[in-house]
Write a structure and sequence with these properties.
This protein is an all-alpha fold. Helices cover 67% and strands 0% of the residues. The radius of gyration is 23 Å and the shape is globular. The protein starts with 9 loop residues before the first helix and ends in a 16-residue tail after the last helix. Keywords: Membrane, Transmembrane, Transmembrane helix.
């Protein structure tokens, strides 16, 4: 059955491939939903300062705000350019879903960074004063290479005080956790999008007919670049169990495609491996389901490596906060 006849009748949706592929969507979603509450209880909490304080002691939070604002403006510009040139039909593709999610993340992250910078600069706030004293006056004017033991001890004491200040910061609320969820979902989806495009679609499916106009829009590379730079600047934790939301996101996209085709709203599949008319469709769906694991843990490994090796390479510049406060509800 060709793509043109995918939505022509009920016979297409009664094929055995549909039921197998449906199970490959439902089962991971159900498993993620069942395990998520249990795994979340064992995870450390997210503090409000994790959302806007950089992981670099010498870096003023305004720099993180400036970068996030720049990334937001660039992402919005790319989306507007694509919409003007191709219309809303571009959102038939998972790439544009993911890029929109990245844009939403930077919108929320910019807003929370702006609020954090306001808190940081408020002289009436004791916590903001302590952060300002450590991050601006003392650290920026300090030569950490000095051999004087007294100076080194004072530096270490200030770092310890800063850690204690952050550790005692209040836990982020619902909106803070939503930003973290969007961040982690965007990270997994970006890895899946870029690796699938460059490693599968371009070499095997679109070698002859896929033009480079979409590539020049930068969405299959800049999404990862934007997020990775933010990751190397921010201090947000990256708990692995939130891969569940990445699974929810991808399953929502596939469900959207199925509903759209079943209702006759679309007669072609944006990605050839989504076509249920092929006898090999279950294998493609299984492969893409499995691909979510390495894609998410690739980004998780990057964050893990950052927290592991940066403190060794940049002992006095990198601030790794130990999360030892009460856990999430």
């Amino acid at each position: 059955m060709s793509e043109a006849t995918a939505a022509d009748g009920a016979a297409y949706w009664l094929r055995w491939q549909v039921f197998v592929c449906g199970a490959l969507i439902v089962l991971p979603t159900a498993a993620a939903a069942a395990l998520l509450p249990r795994l979340r209880r064992a995870a450390p909490p997210l503090r409000t300062t994790d959302l806007w304080v950089p992981c670099w002691a010498r870096l003023h939070p305004g720099w993180l705000l400036g970068y996030r604002a720049f990334a937001l403006a660039a992402a919005v510009a790319l989306l507007v350019r694509l919409l003007v040139g191709h219309g809303v039909n571009v959102f038939f593709f998972y790439t544009q879903w993911t890029f929109l999610l990245v844009t939403i993340y930077f919108a929320f992250a910019t807003a929370i960074s702006a609020h954090g910078c306001w808190v940081y600069s408020t002289k009436n706030s004791k916590k903001a004063d302590e952060s300002h004293e450590f991050l601006s006056d003392d650290v920026e004017n300090r030569d950490f290479s000095t051999p004087i033991s007294g100076e080194r001890k004072r530096d270490e004491k200030k770092i310890t005080n800063y850690h204690e200040h952050i550790a005692n910061e209040k836990i982020a609320g619902l909106w803070g956790r939503c930003i973290q969820i969007i961040y982690q979902t965007s990270a997994g989806a970006t890895m899946l999008t870029d690796l699938t495009f460059w490693g599968l679609l371009v070499p095997f499916f679109y070698r002859d007919k896929f033009g480079l106009a979409l590539v020049t829009d930068g969405m299959h590379s800049l999404n990862a670049v934007f997020l990775l730079i933010d990751t190397f600047l921010n201090n947000m934790p990256f708990p692995w169990y939130r891969m569940a939301f990445f699974v929810f996101w991808s399953c929502a996209y596939v469900t959207f495609q199925w509903v759209l085709h079943a209702c006759g709203g679309l007669s072609w599949w944006p990605y050839p491996f989504l076509d249920l008319g092929s006898s090999g469709a279950p294998l493609w769906y299984l492969a893409m389901a499995i691909a979510h694991i390495p894609c998410f843990f690739l980004y998780w490994s990057i964050v893990k490596a950052k927290h592991t090796y940066f403190p060794r390479l940049f002992q006095h510049a990198y601030v790794r906060i130990t999360q030892n406060v009460q856990r999430e509800d």
